[in-house]
Structures are given as C-alpha cells and as structure tokens.
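stage 2 :: seqdesign
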C-alpha cells in the first residue's frame, strides 16, 4: 500500500511539473514513425506501409522559421514479395502556432526537395531506383511535456514521381523531439 501511494504521489508530482508553462524553445530535432498509405499509381497493388522520418525545425520569430525533413516509406506488394519505397530530403518554411502557454504547438510545413524511388524485385534479387523532384506538406502537433523533450503526432503527404511512376503517399506518424534553444 505504501509503495502504491508513493508511486501515485510521484506520478502526480511529475504531472504537475510537466503541466507548468515551458520556457520557449526556438528549435527541435525529432524522430518519427508511423503508417503510410500509397495514393499514387500502385495504391491498389500494395499493402499499408511503414514510414519513418527525421524532422528539424528552427524558428527565427515567434511563428516563422525553417524546416527540413528526411523521410522514407516502404510498401509490400499484395501479390508477391516485391516492395517499393520512396525516400527523400526536403526543406521549407516552418509556420508555428502555440496553444496553452507554449505547452502545445501546431506546426505546418510545406516542403520541396529530392526523392529516390526504389523497386525491389525479390524473385530476380534486383533493385531499381531513380531520383526525382518531390513536394509535400507536414502538419504536426507537438506537446512540450518536459523542458527539453516533446512528443508529437501528425499527418503528411509526400509526392514523388521517379521513372514516371507516381509513388505519392499519405502518412500518419508519432514521434519524440529534442528541443533546443
């Protein structure tokens, strides 16, 4: 009983400390993972995929800054062991709005950059890839739960058309971010 009360008191103390207004931070770097859904030419031929990303944001003013993102998606074919994917590096503006004394922030990032489409054919043990222009957008909510750490959730859309095959995808991700000044 004593251990349970101590644990409850510790959780309440952490919750109160985390709910205090956080010191404003200008930037962050984060890791995210989630589900990806093809919206391009092969959407009917592939299963739901996986998406990962490394995200960076730095604000110059209270609401405007710059962002960069490295991402990767992978999808397995419904018909065989082949897989396709799209990965890339994109940059763009960062538009941020704080809610609840800076505890919660909403980010919107229109992005452009380069991507690489990949097709892996298991039976032939071959891989084809091609570079292309990419564009996209990312909308994310970050919860600044500790002084230097925030948790995030968001949605994004990546467009890429290497070798005239539309590998565009829609993703839903969750992540953790390190906040720096």
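stage 2 :: out
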């Amino acid at each position: 009983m004593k251990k349970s009360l101590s644990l409850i008191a510790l959780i309440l103390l952490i919750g109160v400390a985390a709910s205090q207004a956080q010191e404003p931070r200008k930037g962050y770097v984060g890791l995210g993972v989630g589900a990806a859904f093809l919206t391009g030419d092969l959407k009917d031929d592939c299963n739901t995929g996986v998406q990962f990303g490394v995200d960076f944001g730095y604000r110059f003013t209270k609401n405007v800054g710059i962002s960069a993102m490295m991402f990767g998606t992978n999808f397995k074919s419904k018909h065989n062991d082949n897989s396709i994917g799209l990965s890339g590096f994109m940059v763009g503006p960062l538009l941020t709005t704080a809610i609840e004394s800076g505890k919660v922030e909403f980010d919107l990032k229109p992005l452009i950059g380069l991507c690489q489409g990949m097709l892996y054919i298991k039976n032939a043990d071959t891989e084809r890839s091609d570079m292309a222009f990419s564009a996209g957008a990312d909308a994310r909510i970050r919860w600044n739960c500790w002084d230097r750490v925030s948790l995030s959730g968001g949605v994004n859309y990546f467009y890429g058309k290497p070798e005239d095959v539309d590998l565009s995808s829609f993703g839903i991700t969750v992540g953790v971010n390190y906040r720096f000044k």
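stage 3 :: structure notes
- DSSP finds one helix and eight strands in the chain.
- Residues 57 and 67 are 4 Å apart (CA to CA).
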